[in-house]
Amino acid sequence: xxxxxxxxxxxxxxxxxxxxxxxxxxxxxxxxxxxxxxxxxxxxxxxxxxxxxxxxxxxxxxxxxxxxxxxxxxxxxxxxxxxxxxxxxxxxxxxxxxxxxxxxxxxxxxxxxxxxxxxxxxxxxxxxxxxxxxxxxxxxxxxxxxxxxxxxxxxxxxxxxxxxxxxxxxxxxxxxxxxxxxxxxxxxxxxxxxxxxxxxxxxxxxxxxxxxxxxxxxxxxxxxxxxxxxxxxxxxxxxxxxxxxxxxxxxxxxxxxxxxxxxxxxxxxxxxxxxxxxxxxxxxxxxxxxxxxxxxxxxxxxxxxxxxxxxxxxxxxxxxxxxxxxxxxxxxxxxxxxxxxxxxxxxxxxxxxxxxxxxxxxxxxxxxxx
Length: 370
Fold this sequence. Notes:
Layout: E1 8-12, H1 17-27, E2 31-36, E3 56-60, H2 65-75, E4 80-83, H3 89-93, H4 97-103, E5 108-113, H5 128-135, H6 154-179, E6 185-189, H7 190-197, H8 199-206, E7 226-230, E8 236-240, H9 244-253, H10 270-281, H11 286-293, E9 300-302, H12 306-311, H13 313-318, E10 321-322, E11 325-326, H14 344-350, H15 355-363, E12 367-369
Parallel strand pairs: 1-2, 1-4, 2-3, 4-5, 5-6
Antiparallel strand pairs: 3-12, 7-8, 8-9, 10-11
């Protein structure tokens, strides 16, 4: 049995971190009903997007009174409501927290936005790069002499948004089930989550241990033993030999002078060491280096593309991918336990939603069952 079995989530369709958070709930055992917008254009169709798989998908026109009425009927059986609209949108359509909690005070209401529900920028548009910029983290990424480089949309959207939305859901369920709390609302702001993820960097900065020149620090590619190197076949290896004992093994494996070990943290030596590593790694292919460093403590790994990552022996041995997509439930002992997937019709029946009403909203186009 998975830990969230018996929990039911109503996901008001959004993009990015919202769907991935809902998918995490699903993989941990929850039942997820996704309410799609009839006018939305998805980046990927649900059949292809890995974060949208296994949903109970329905399309409801939330601009119609019947559509809102149907969602309100569904809310009577929901443990979590997850939405990612701008502040005020859910209130405007009649599904704000106060109304939702008047219907079901036990529903955990998660609001996932970039800027949060309060603050002078709450109504501004934004994307991952903007949240990163305001958090201070974007200023740390890239090389000196070039503009900061966004790390695709992994950090603010997914690293921050998804993580804190999932934490909110787990906290909310705990509060309701164990502490008899009601009317719970969580305000998840991605730019704040990014700042939290960068707590160490804020600390290093305040301690005078972080150089404001990008690409010159211990963890941003400035250290010759913590960066990527090109190989003979125009591929790359990643070197992460931070600790002295790991750096020593790296130096030994590369047949370099042993005195380099005692000079590891001598910043004046870093440019010289970088040149040495660059030249050496160019002498062999990525896979040759992989074999040399396999099962050692040198902290050298091949930089794989997505297809290679799926098929790497370590990923395969751990079953890290399911149906060719990454999974979030691999920490569970019972990860392969099957959960019965209900139909939306059976949920309508369970909640005693009138058949006549369902037929009416289907007929007038308010509801589309997928």
